[in-house]
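R.M. (postdoc): so does anyone remember the format we settled on? I'll just put the structure tokens first.
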């Protein structure tokens, strides 16, 4: 089991003063690591890892709804879709498919220990070789509606620029300007172009590019971020160690924010 990353957890019913909201984002590599006959099933370890993150909201990318080939290959393949399997007790799971393949489908997911009010999805595919999408969940935090967007941007820089612009349009169209907003995921951005675009959109994050998450074994670049509007960034961390880099090619990123 991975080591716990938050020694003092807070339940949703804790005090009525300003609270800290803990958000994690994690690309789980479809629950399998390795290639060919040497690939290994990591979804069971990931279940323990997600619980250890102790986040109020967990944003996941590369989550499988089903895969007939892997289910036939691994005797311990879970019967539940991965989003439902990974949700700790008491959490609600949201999932929307981004990509359909010969053997199944995968997409983004959100796990929330707060009540989920609604869910939506938008196709963000920029070309036929990459199927991408946006998951939009609204959660009720002490009666306040917090909008959460889970994204996984493309591998090509020009695609990411267009997808960032599409994300901007979606936010303007679908999310009230005064509503607290979280945008989290794998942005696949090795530079600062997407970050500068988000800054112009009024989104904030903790110390951009200061917390490498990829590749997990020897992290060199930060591809995973949590951006916010209407919340105050407090701190960010990335758990490290062998137990973490064996589960996915990304490390999870955990960020904390003050929510008035």
């Amino acid at each position: 089991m991975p080591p716990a990353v938050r020694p003092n957890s807070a339940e949703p019913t804790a005090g009525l003063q300003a609270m800290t909201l803990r958000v994690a984002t994690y690309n789980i590599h479809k629950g399998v690591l390795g290639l060919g006959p040497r690939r290994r099933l990591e979804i069971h370890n990931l279940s323990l890892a997600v619980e250890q993150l102790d986040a109020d909201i967990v944003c996941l990318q590369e989550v499988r709804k089903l895969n007939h080939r892997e289910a036939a290959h691994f005797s311990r393949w879970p019967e539940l879709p991965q989003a439902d399997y990974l949700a700790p007790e008491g959490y609600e799971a949201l999932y929307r498919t981004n990509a359909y393949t010969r053997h199944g489908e995968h997409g983004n997911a959100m796990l929330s220990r707060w009540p989920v009010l609604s869910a939506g999805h938008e196709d963000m595919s920029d070309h036929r070789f990459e199927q991408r999408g946006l998951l939009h969940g609204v959660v009720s935090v002490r009666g306040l509606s917090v909008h959460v967007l889970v994204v996984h941007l493309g591998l090509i820089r020009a695609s990411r620029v267009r997808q960032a612009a599409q994300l901007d349009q979606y936010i303007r169209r679908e999310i009230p300007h005064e509503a607290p907003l979280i945008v989290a995921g794998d942005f696949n951005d090795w530079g600062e172009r997407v970050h500068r675009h988000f800054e112009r959109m009024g989104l904030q994050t903790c110390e951009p590019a200061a917390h490498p998450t990829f590749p997990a074994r020897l992290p060199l670049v930060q591809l995973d971020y949590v951006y916010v509007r209407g919340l105050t960034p407090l701190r960010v961390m990335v758990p490290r160690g062998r137990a973490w880099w064996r589960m996915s090619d990304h490390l999870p990123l955990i960020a904390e924010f003050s929510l008035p």
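R.M.: ...and that's the designed sequence above, right after the tokens. Also worth knowing: The mean pLDDT is 92. The first strand starts at residue 19 and ends at 27.
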